[in-house]
Amino acid sequence: MALKLRLPRSWPVYVFGSLILLLSLVTIVGERGALHLWRLRGEKNRLDAENYRLQKENDALRQRVSRIRNDNHYLEKLTREELNLVRPGEVIYRFPSAETGSAPRQSVNDSASQPRPSGAQKAPR
Question: Who contacts 29 (Cβ-Cβ below 8 Å, separation ≥6)?
């Protein structure tokens, strides 16, 4: 009673087909497969866009530095805006911003309800 294992005649076709299927699966989903390559291309596009944005920002900063070094009127404008400097004889008008304008004002009654400084706390005249 020896069992003979009978293989069909087309067994090489099945083996070859299985190998091709396995190879294509590894090519698509493997560590260096098509999906990984697709993700890397997306990341490269994102990095290229960020690089372009940073180059534009660097160009703008270089132009600003050049203007600060060479253009005295621009330098004066920047110092006036950022450091709040004024020339002698100038009058500065300050308008409340929208943030401070929306804050509730203290009424007269509120200031009366606060304790007044005692005579010992007052400065001598």
Answer: 35
Amino acid in position 61:
L
pTM for this one?
A: 0.49
d(CA 65, CA 70): 9
- Could you read off the pLDDT of 61-85 as tens digits, one per residue? 999 999 999 999 999 888 888 887 8
Residues 6+ apart with CB under 8 A from 27: 33, 34
Q: Do 79 and 85 meet the contact criterion of CB atoms below 8 Å apart?
A: yes
What span, in angstroms and rounded, lies between the C-alpha atoms of 28 and 35? 6
Give the whole-angstrom CA distance, residue 40 versus residue 48: 12
